[in-house]
């Protein structure tokens, strides 16, 4: 098992856009395994490479009966319905707030062997795909909260035992809320 420490809110790597994967090699396969083992050890629904300090466009997921990984993912909303519900993050441990997301998405990318993959998800899987893809763009779900909820979230984070004390950057959402596909 190759469980790695998860980077916490305030770590600059979480605010940087990850690079496209160009080499589908042994190192990439090891990264996918590390992501999987670390996600499972923390009982997470998903984990993106930047959360392990790796600036590559890769994430794993295990939720709603679906499991896998996506490399260089893009997604598009399907049907135009939204969902508003609780969302958490392994980089913001033990906390969650209600967040607006698309209720149904289709994601496309590649697996660790360079083969094309398509994943269609609703509800929790759709939320997970959007959340993890945001991580690859340096966006945290806190950026998607309304202003009042975001301020309350920051107060709670500043009081958390795990918070290091330096004031992290929280920014307004730099991307359109839906239609995250590029």
Automatic annotation (TrEMBL):
InterPro entries the UniProt entry points to: Peptide_deformylase, Peptide_deformylase_sf
One Gene Ontology molecular-function label: metal ion binding
Enzyme Commission number(s) of this protein: 3.5.1.88
Catalytically driven reaction(s): N-terminal N-formyl-L-methionyl-[peptide] + H2O = N-terminal L-methionyl-[peptide] + formate
Cofactor needs: Fe(2+)
Gene Ontology biological process terms, A to Z: translation
Record's cofactor remark: Binds 1 Fe(2+) ion.
Residues reported in the UniProt entry to bind Fe cation: 89, 131, 135
Catalytic residues as annotated in Swiss-Prot or TrEMBL: 132
CDD domains, A to Z: Pep_deformylase (cd00487)
SUPFAM superfamilies tied to this protein: Peptide deformylase
Keywords of this entry: Hydrolase, Iron, Metal-binding, Protein biosynthesis
Entry-linked NCBIfam families: pept_deformyl (TIGR00079), PRK00150.1-3 (NF001159)
HAMAP family assigned: Pep_deformylase
PANTHER family (UniProt xref): PEPTIDE DEFORMYLASE, PEPTIDE DEFORMYLASE, MITOCHONDRIAL
Role of this protein: Removes the formyl group from the N-terminal Met of newly synthesized proteins. Requires at least a dipeptide for an efficient rate of reaction. N-terminal L-methionine is a prerequisite for activity but the enzyme has broad specificity at other positions.
Family: Belongs to the polypeptide deformylase family.
Listed name of the protein: Peptide deformylase
Organism: Saccharopolyspora montiporae
Source organism phylogeny: Bacteria, Bacillati, Actinomycetota, Actinomycetes, Pseudonocardiales
Gene that produces this protein: def
């Amino acid at each position: 098992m190759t469980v790695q420490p998860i980077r916490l809110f305030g770590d600059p790597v979480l605010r940087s856009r990850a690079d496209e994967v160009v080499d589908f090699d042994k190192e990439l396969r090891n990264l996918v395994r590390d992501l999987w083992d670390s996600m499972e050890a923390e009982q997470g629904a998903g984990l993106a490479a930047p959360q392990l300090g790796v600036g590559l466009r890769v994430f794993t997921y295990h939720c709603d009966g679906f499991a896998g990984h996506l490399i260089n993912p893009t997604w598009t909303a399907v049907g135009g319905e939204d969902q508003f519900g609780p969302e958490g993050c392994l980089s913001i441990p033990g906390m969650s707030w209600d967040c607006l997301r698309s209720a149904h998405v289709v994601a496309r990318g590649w697996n660790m062997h360079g083969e094309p993959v398509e994943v269609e998800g609703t509800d929790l899987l759709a939320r997970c795909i959007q959340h993890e893809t945001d991580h690859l763009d340096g966006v945290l779900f806190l950026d998607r909260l309304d202003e009042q909820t975001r301020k309350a979230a920051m107060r709670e984070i500043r009081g958390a035992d795990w918070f290091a004390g330096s004031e992290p950057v929280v920014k307004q959402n730099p991307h359109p809320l839906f239609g995250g596909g590029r």
